[in-house]
Structures are given as C-alpha cells and as structure tokens.
C-alpha cells in the first residue's frame, strides 16, 4: 500500500473523467456522480476468486456499504476504479472507512481524495485570463497543451533564468511584466538607449514583443490578465525591429548582455513570401556562433527562432538561414487540434513544434499585450509561429532552472529525445537511431514535463565535432522530374576518426546551383541509414533567376545515427509550366556542393542508453528528490565591450567586423588546405575525379568570433 498508490494516483489526476473533474473544481457541489469535497475515496477493486465482469459494479456497491460509503460508479474508462463517497450528513471524519478498505480483500488500493484536491489547489490562479490559456492546461481537448502544470507544482518556474525577447520593444511597465522585468538584460538598438519601451507611431503596431514576453513570464496570481510558461523567470527586451535593421545591429542584438540573458527568443526572420532565400549575414552569423561559444559562461546562449509564417505561399524554413542554422532551436506551430496550421512552414531543420493559433474556429494564444494605442494590456489573439517560439523559450527556461549548465547542444538533444509524436496523418519517419521526425512537426510536440525531467538527469554531451567534405565540383545538368541527378560522397571510418564524430547531430549541405527559375529545384539528402530529408523543397512562387550561391541547407533528421557511410544528394527539376515535362526544359546546373557533418564522439550505444534513461526519468522521481548531477562552474568570460553607439561607431564596427572576417577566412584556408591534401581523403577524392579545389566559402564552424575570447569547440 505504501508505494503503489502514488503513480496511479498521479495518473488519475491526468486521466480525469467527467465525474472526477466536476469534483476537483471548487464549485458548488452537484448531486451524484460527484461527492462533496473531502468526502470521497478512490478505490481499485479486484475480483480475486470471482471472475465475473459484470459483478465489479456490484462489488463496488458491496465494498461501499461495508465501509459506510456509497458507490458513485466507475471512474471514467478506468476499469476497476471506483469513486466512493461519504453518505451526506454523516460524520466527516468517520475513521472506519479507511480501516475497512485497508482490510478488505477486494481492495487493491485506495486513497481519500481530499489530498488530491489540495495539491491541485496550488495551481488556482486568480488571473482572469488564466482559465482560457488552453496552451498551458487544456480542459477541452485533453493533452493539447504543453503539460507544464506538474512542473510548476514542483516549484519549477524558471527561477534564476533570464529570457530576452528580441523584437519591436517590450512594455515593461505592464502589471504582468514589471515584477519579472530585467533591465540588466535589456537594450534598445533602434534608439541606442537602455530602455526597450516600444514606440508609438501612426503606422506600426509595436505590440509584438510585449505579447511574446507575456507568454514567457507574465506574472501569476496578480488578478491581471494571464500567466507565463516560466513565470518565475526574468524577461528582458531588445528593441531592434522598429526601424531599419542592419547586419551589425543584428550581431549586437544576438550577443547583448549575454552573461545575463540565457535564452534569446526571436519570433521573426526573412520575408515569408515563398521566394526569399536569406539568413543572417556575416556579422549576424558570427554573433550566433560567438553566442553559443561564450554566452552563459560558455555553456552557450540558447537561440530560439520561429519557423516562419509563409505556409500559404509554400514557403519552407530551410530557405531561412536563422531557422536553418545549427546554432538555433527552430520551432514550428501546431493548432489546438495538434495539426499544422495553414500559415506554418515545414522544413528538415525544424526541431519541434508547440501550440499557436489555427483556423478561425480554433483558439489563439492568450497573453499580455501592450496598453499603448488601442491595447488593453491583455489579448486573446496572439497568432502565428511568432506565438510558438516564446512558449518554447519559456520551456527552455524551466529546463535551465533544474540544470543551469546545460549547453546549447544539450538543449537541442533533450528536445530531440523528448518531443512527442501526435498527428499521425503527417509524414513521420523513424530514423536509424529510432527518433521520429516529420518535416511538418520536427521531432514532435514540446512537452514541458518531459523536457524538465530529462534536463534534470542529463549529462552534458561530448564537445561538438565536425567533418567537412571538400567542395565537390560537378557542373552537372539537373534533369526534369521524375529523373534526378544523384551525387554521392562516402564518409569513411578514417575520415571520422580524424574529425572525432561517431554519431550525428545536424547535417548540412552547401550548394551552388544555377537555374533560371529557382523554385523548380528540389533537393533531397539521403543519410547512410537511408533516412531522407527534403532539404530544398520546390516553391511555386520562387521565380528568382540567380539560383543558389553557396546556400547551406541543413537537416536534423539523421540525429543520433552513425555518421559513417554514403551520403547522397538527389536533385531534380520540377517544371511547373510545361505539361510535357521534356528534358529540354531543364536548364539548371549543380555547380558545386559540400557536405558538413556535425556531431560528437558519443557512441551509437550511448544514444540508445540515453533514450532509455530519458524514459526512466519520466516518473518525476528525480524532480522530487534531492538528486542532482554536479555542474562545472563555466568559463570566466570578460565583461562585454560597451560601445557608446553613434552612426560612426557603427560604421567602424562594421568595417572592423569585415576585416576580422577576412582575416579569419584567410586563417581558415591556411588551416584547412594541408588537412584536405592529407593522406587517404585526398587520394580517394582525386580518384573519384570530384575533388577540384577548396573554396573559401563561409564556414561557420571555424570563424573567429568578433568579440572577446573563446577557445571552445
Ligand atoms: C492566488 O491568490 C489567492 C488569493 O487571491 C490565493 O488564495 C491563492 O493561494 C494564490 N495561488 C497561488 C498559486 O499562489
Ligand atoms: C504530463 O505531466 C504529468 C505530470 O504532471 C505526467 O504524469 C504525464 O505523464 C505527462 N504527460 C505526458 C503526455 O507526458
Ligand atoms: C520555490 O522556489 C523559489 C526559488 O527557487 C524559492 O525561493 C522558494 O522558497 C520555493 N518555494 C517552495 C515552497 O519550495
Ligand atoms: C561508396 O559506398 C558505397 C556503398 O557503401 C559503394 O557502393 C560505393 O562504391 C562507394 N563509392 C566510392 C566512391 O567509394
Ligand atoms: C534533501 O536533503 C536534505 C539535506 O541534505 C535532507 O534533509 C532532506 O531530507 C532531503 N530530502 C529528500 C526528499 O530526500
Ligand atoms: Ca528606448
Ligand atoms: Ca497575471
Ligand atoms: Ca519563411
């Protein structure tokens, strides 16, 4: 009796059937099937010797009678579980009932329910919009929420963690923001002052950043509006979207106060018009890389980005260099039914999804709002993948509270290991390491309970390693669908020994393709396991005539797989206008490509072992106990260089940045050339006739950061 009731008891809490539900909610008691608060027992019965199905109900009646209670029937669909109530008007503390149930041969376990009611009560917030925050606790569509309440019940609310919203400003004076506002993490790059307060102007509606911040850290139980996912965390704002945005501004934003800010929530990106191919420019890229190396004392800033809202235009987040970057956590959206909404974008680099708005009849996200212009300080209408990314950022804050030394890669790993498969109608595929991924849903739904439990027991993964193939010059014509150009590159055990990779994380392919109509090109990567990734989807609206110049596509779909083996690129031309589909229409050429593998020396067996550990942690036992894995102290990162910004200093910074970039590229070449001509690889490559020359293409991995030190990866 001592240990077994508890798991079942917790299970009951979440499998709440209508009778139980009406019992928990503290409303005037209704007649049966509910009982008065504090006057009910949950029992599990078993027949023992009497095997008759139909008599369980009668057995419940009998047991109830013997214990001086009355049976209110089976609890929902839980076979053998019954709700027994005190008979109205009798002595509340009749101790006889417990003793009778204890001794009864047919009672497997029992529990008086008032304890359950009390644990639930801690989550009753007085915020008027909390009941409609379905993404936190969905009482209508069960399971369609981020499953965070059990985490909060264990007092895990993001304490000690700061999330910064990089956006159009943050109205930090709002009742729901002010107590959790972090001025130390904030800045205004549009006006060059420390205060990210959004500006009012006649054209723009700068409420976006404030809405995102509310989703993360809206203050609970203040009788105002809503509650944030990580309501014990601090939230900062970096105002950068209200005006012309330059590469250097973006670079500054990504590293701003990066020893204060732990998570950067970015609900924006290049135009979602279905024909843009763009991403962070050199400084922004360098800042992302510097952020993961030096942010958070070297554990790495966590950059959470939205997958984009170009679904209506057939846009794909692999044409968005922020989503595509290995340094970001790319988050897509599902609606309240767990389906991909019309606006959402899919891609092979998407890590996971979480909730947001959907079709007109479905609910949107309820959160804080600015109170300027026509705003009331509260909204029920936050929409798009913009609303999904901050929920993810809040969940990361919860993870960092229980384990502050998780690295930027640990966070991505944990998401991969814990996201859950929901909508079975989409293109799920299980990869060679047993992870399921869909281009539409990433690895699945983010689940705060699973994320936090796993974070608690997660040992830091080995350092990042990478393998770069040479630039493979092809100059091959891309044939029209259904024909395709197939190119392969074998990664040998010797290659991998040099690079130190055993299992994969991200796989990236950098291509240069000329094509008179870029949107016709479709590119698929096949990993050694046979797992396919649609890294470059066709896009009907993309009529660009310049093709791709050293564009890097990436995929997470081979995560955890063994790195060794043959990688193939399948490129085909979907001619949209021609009914005949003649070969003569295919005018595209694949000029060159390059394969980059990211991963670590983690063995395949360890990946499997970690998966088992993750599932073992789900009972919550590690959250409940004093269990903790020691954390290293982290690096001593020198304080930020504070530059008083003027237009001129910006220009100088830009110039310096470009200079540093050139230097680092030169340095890179020096380093890589001998490696490429080393034994083995060079020889086999030459034999294939594919290897021609090393291109000085932009290489994120080896680029020297612009600011400060790092002797990281
Ligand atoms: C919220 O405030 C009410 C009083 O307004 C209080 O009774 C309740 O316990 C509080 N809930 C939490 C979770 O602190
Ligand atoms: C949701 O969280 C509860 C703990 O609060 C846990 O028992 C349950 O298994 C979780 N559900 C899922 C689907 O992970
Ligand atoms: C909850 O956590 C906060 C911050 O870690 C701490 O100050 C507080 O005492 C905790 N409350 C309980 C009831 O454990
Ligand atoms: C690459 O590996 C595949 C099978 O693993 C093999 O058939 C093929 O010949 C190899 N190619 C080269 C160039 O070594
Ligand atoms: C946690 O540790 C403290 C002191 O080390 C101890 O007093 C307490 O009983 C422990 N709690 C649990 C749940 O193990
Ligand atoms: Ca300002
Ligand atoms: Ca509130
Ligand atoms: Ca997009």
Any idea what the CATH superfamily of the largest domain is called? Peptidase S8/S53 domain
The total tally of domains equals 4
Radius of gyration, in Å, reads 28 Å
Bound molecules: 2-acetamido-2-deoxy-beta-D-glucopyranose, calcium ion
Secondary-structure arrangement, i.e. CATH architecture of the largest domain: 3-Layer(aba) Sandwich
Give the % helix. Answer: 25-40%
Q: Taking strands numbered 1, 2, ... along the chain, how are they ordered across the largest sheet?
A: 6-7-5-8-9-10-11
CATH class wording of the largest domain: Alpha Beta
Based on secondary structure, the structural category is alpha/beta
Query: What is the mean predicted local confidence, pLDDT?
Result: 83
Q: Counting H and I runs of at least 4 residues, what is the number of helices?
A: 18
Distance from N terminus to C terminus (CA atoms, Å) equals: 52 Å
The tally of beta strands, per DSSP, is 24
Q: What about the largest sheet? A: 7 strands, parallel
Broad shape? globular
Poorly predicted runs: 1-33, 115-121, 673-713
Beta-strand portion reads 15-25%
Instruction: Return the CATH topology of the largest domain.
Output: Rossmann fold
Protein name: P/Homo B domain-containing protein
GO molecular function: serine-type endopeptidase activity
Subcellular location: Membrane
Main location: membrane
